[in-house]
């Protein structure tokens, strides 16, 4: 499928109508020049609830009708991890562009197949790492790109939640459905952000462990990733955090950025830029706060629609998604979650 005319309406289908699927449909409703034609879920009640968000949207239980409709140009896949890649692959082979939720699949191998098939079909596949579009993280990118931190030295990040009663019996605790635990769930966001700021991270050290929950997947992971130039990303993800936490710190020769919170239960998103003074000592601090909706879902959908209209490379490619999962698999292999 080639790029569409700049004035042409883009037709979407939403596959998977749980919490994330509803967020996608709500974001799509605010996007000019776009229409949601189908809401698809094995649970018809959930499909109907999402279909009700868009005039004329049809609720269906099977993906076959969606993929057979030539009017559908983009399929959004928001299913559990085990069906992300299979549904996306079917959509690509039907000539549809795809926006697929992170991590994109159970393993990097699934994404390599998807990448090859997308190239054959001439369609775009965007892996959703929407944290890049949170306002504090966008501001951090702006400050780094403007040279305010000077050469980057290292990055430190933590991300975690405390689960809930019965968490160890949900689909995320079943490796056949999830591909892993906390590392493949929230950890992939930190790996993606570390690579986005520092570049490729070929040296991979660390381990994952199951410390608390009664499940076969990890509930904590500790990573030390390094670029070829020696810049380090130190990452910790946890579902024994108890109080939800997001913290990202980026250090350069001339200053530091600290981002805390993501909104909601993670607290107000806040960025503080600490500028080192020539005489050193206490730095000069400037803080920005971002209360309310983070806007990342809408911005991501808007950017992908423009990628299609302008025939430009997607912001988060399958190559990026593959690299993130290769790092996850390396840690899982070192920690015994993937057998040799």
Fold and architecture overview:
With 340 residues, the protein is of the alpha/beta class. It has two domains: 10-130 and 297-316, 3-Layer(aba) Sandwich (Rossmann fold), CATH 3.40.50.720; 135-293, Dihydrodipicolinate Reductase, domain 2 (2-Layer Sandwich). Helices cover 34% and strands 26% of the residues. It has an eight-stranded mixed sheet, covered by helices on one side.
Radius of gyration: 20 Å
Figure out the total of helices.
10
CATH architecture of the largest domain: 2-Layer Sandwich
Major beta sheet, strand line-up: 8-9-10-7-11-12-13-14
What is the rounded distance between the termini? 40 Å
Global shape: globular
Blueprint (SSEs and pairs):
Blueprint: E1 10-15, H1 19-29, E2 34-40, H2 44-51, E3 58-60, H3 64-68, E4 74-77, H4 81-93, E5 97-101, H5 108-121, E6 125-128, H6 135-145, E7 152-160, H7 175-178, H8 182-198, E8 203-209, E9 220-226, E10 232-238, E11 245-252, E12 255-260, E13 269-275, E14 284-290, H9 296-310, H10 318-335
Parallel strand pairs: 1-2, 1-4, 2-3, 4-5, 5-6, 7-10
Antiparallel strand pairs: 7-11, 8-9, 9-10, 11-12, 12-13, 13-14
Helix pairs in contact: 1-9, 4-5, 5-10, 8-10
């Amino acid at each position: 499928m080639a790029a569409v005319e700049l004035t042409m309406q883009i037709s979407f289908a939403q596959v998977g109508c749980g919490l994330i699927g509803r967020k996608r449909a709500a974001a799509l409703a605010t996007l000019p020049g776009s229409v949601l034609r189908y809401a698809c879920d094995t649970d018809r009640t959930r499909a109907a609830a999402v279909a009700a968000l868009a005039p004329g949207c049809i609720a269906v239980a099977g993906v076959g009708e969606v993929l057979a409709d030539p009017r559908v140009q983009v399929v959004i896949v928001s299913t559990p991890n085990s069906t992300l890649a299979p549904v996306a692959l079917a959509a690509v082979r039907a000539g549809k562009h795809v926006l697929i939720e992170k991590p994109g699949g159970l393993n990097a191998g699934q994404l390599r197949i998807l990448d090859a098939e997308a190239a054959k079909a001439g369609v775009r596949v965007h892996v959703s790492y929407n944290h890049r579009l949170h306002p504090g993280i966008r501001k951090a990118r702006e400050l780094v790109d403007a040279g305010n931190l000077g050469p980057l030295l290292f990055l430190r990040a933590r991300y975690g939640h405390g689960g809930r009663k019965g968490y160890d019996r949900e689909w995320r605790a079943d490796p056949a459905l999830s591909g892993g635990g906390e590392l493949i769930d929230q950890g992939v966001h930190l790996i993606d952000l570390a690579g986005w700021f520092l570049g490729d991270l070929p040296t991979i050290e660390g381990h994952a462990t199951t410390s608390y929950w009664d499940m076969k997947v990890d509930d904590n992971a500790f990573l030390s990733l390094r670029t070829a130039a020696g810049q380090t990303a130190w990452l910790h993800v946890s579902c024994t955090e108890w109080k939800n936490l997001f913290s990202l710190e980026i250090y350069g020769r001339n200053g530091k950025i600290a981002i805390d919170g993501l909104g909601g239960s993670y607290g107000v998103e806040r960025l503080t830029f600490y500028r080192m003074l020539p005489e050193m000592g206490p730095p000069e601090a400037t803080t920005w706060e971002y209360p309310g909706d983070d806007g990342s879902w809408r911005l991501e959908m808007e950017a992908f629609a423009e990628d299609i209209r302008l025939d430009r490379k997607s912001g988060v490619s399958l190559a990026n998604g593959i690299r993130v999962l290769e790092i996850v698999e390396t840690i899982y292999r070192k920690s015994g979650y993937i057998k040799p």
